[in-house]
């Protein structure tokens, strides 16, 4: 089925893409498309706003912005129906609002906590998982397992799309 | 059988049944590339949790690497007309 996508207005493009069947077993095609669209928009904005240089500082700042955009785009694509995506959206919003001095204070208190925990042997797997999944600290164990499964599926989609974009731009 | 009883004691909440947890753990196992092909009675819940943590960490690392790669590529590309083409290539 060959269709010339460029002649379709934007809305029909969305409908067309939404109706396509995804070849992948575990990913939701609508979520994948929604993520891709949001992420590409964010990339375009970053490209407009950031200086075009290849200096180490600029690359690492762009890299940080791209990383945050990727997680934020995926959380927005999933929406508010998952606890982990809600927690992620809050984190990104707070990060934007958070002033530099506040961020430094948070960094120091986290570092102190990490030092205190370093000598604790036998790190509990459940605690570790709670740390890795956004919003994991305040869920019961069953909910944590459910959210983890969904988080992993979304992360694999995110990685897949990012890799495809990078491959596309590499050619 | 005794491991089931001790697991429910560990979870600390008597309303969550062992079967529910086993079901969720086996669903998680299906997502993990390292151990999804192993039989579920040979894989313990703690191994699934361990593998889950490792897998999430490796996915985070991949996102970091891809972000770095994209930040280097972003400077050298013309992104404006590529959106439909990218989406098409991703979904086909």
Describe it for me?
The complex is a heterodimer of chains A (171) and B (92). Chain A is mostly helical and 171 residues long. Helices cover 74% and strands 0% of the residues of chain A. In chain A, helix 2 runs antiparallel to helix 3 and helix 3 packs antiparallel against helix 4. The two termini of chain A are 25 Å apart. Chain B has 92 residues and is mainly α. Chain B has a single domain, classed as MYOD Basic-Helix-Loop-Helix Domain, subunit B (Irregular), CATH 4.10.280. In chain B, helix 2 packs parallel to helix 3. The radius of gyration of chain B is 21 Å and the shape is elongated. Chain B starts with a helix and ends with a helix. The mean pLDDT of chain B is 78. At the A-B interface, helix 2, helix 3, helix 6 and helix 7 of A face helix 2, helix 3 and helix 4 of B.
Present the secondary structure layout.
The complex is a heterodimer of chains A (171) and B (92).
Chain A: H1 10-19, H2 29-49, H3 56-78, H4 83-97, H5 100-118, H6 125-132, H7 141-170
Helix pairs in contact in A: 2-3, 3-4, 3-7
Chain B: H1 2-11, H2 18-31, H3 45-74, H4 83-91
Helix pairs in contact in B: 2-3
Report, as a whole number of angstroms, the end-to-end distance of chain B: 47 Å
The name CATH uses for the topology of chain B is MYOD Basic-Helix-Loop-Helix Domain, subunit B
Q: Biggest β-sheet of chain B, characterized?
A: none
Tally of separate domains of chain B: 1
List the uncertain runs of chain A. 1-6, 12-26
What's the multimeric state?
Answer: heterodimer
What is the global morphology of chain B? elongated
Question: Which range does the strand content of chain A fall in?
Answer: under 5%
**SSE arrangement of chain B, N to C:** HHHH
Please give the share of residues in helix of chain B.
55-70%
> Largest interface here, residues on each chain?
A-B, 60 and 47 residues
Distance between the termini of chain A: 25 Å
């Amino acid at each position: 089925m060959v269709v010339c996508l460029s002649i379709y207005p934007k809305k029909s493009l969305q409908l067309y893409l939404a109706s396509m069947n995804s070849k992948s077993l575990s990913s939701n095609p609508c979520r994948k498309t929604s993520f891709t669209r949001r992420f590409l928009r964010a990339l375009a904005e970053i490209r407009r706003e950031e200086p075009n240089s290849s200096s180490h500082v600029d690359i690492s700042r762009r890299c940080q912005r791209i990383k945050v955009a990727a997680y934020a785009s995926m959380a927005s694509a999933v929406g508010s129906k998952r606890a982990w995506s809600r927690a992620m959206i809050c984190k990104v919003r707070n990060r934007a609002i958070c002033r530099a001095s506040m961020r430094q204070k948070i960094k120091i208190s986290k570092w102190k906590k990490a030092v205190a925990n370093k000598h604790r042997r036998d790190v509990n797997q459940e605690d570790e998982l709670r740390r890795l999944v956004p919003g994991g600290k305040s869920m019961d164990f069953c909910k944590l397992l459910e959210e983890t499964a969904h988080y992993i599926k979304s992360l694999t989609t995110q990685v897949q799309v990012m890799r495809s974009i990078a491959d596309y731009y590499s050619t | 059988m005794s491991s089931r009883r001790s697991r429910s004691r560990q979870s600390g909440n008597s309303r969550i049944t062992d079967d529910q947890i086993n079901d969720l753990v086996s669903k998680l196992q299906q997502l993990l590339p390292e151990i999804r092909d192993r039989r579920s009675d040979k894989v313990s819940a703690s191994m699934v949790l361990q593998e889950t943590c490792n897998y999430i960490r490796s996915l985070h690392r991949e996102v970091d690497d891809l972000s770095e790669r994209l930040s280097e590529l972003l400077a050298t590309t013309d992104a404006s007309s590529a959106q439909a083409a990218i989406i098409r290539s991703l979904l086909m």
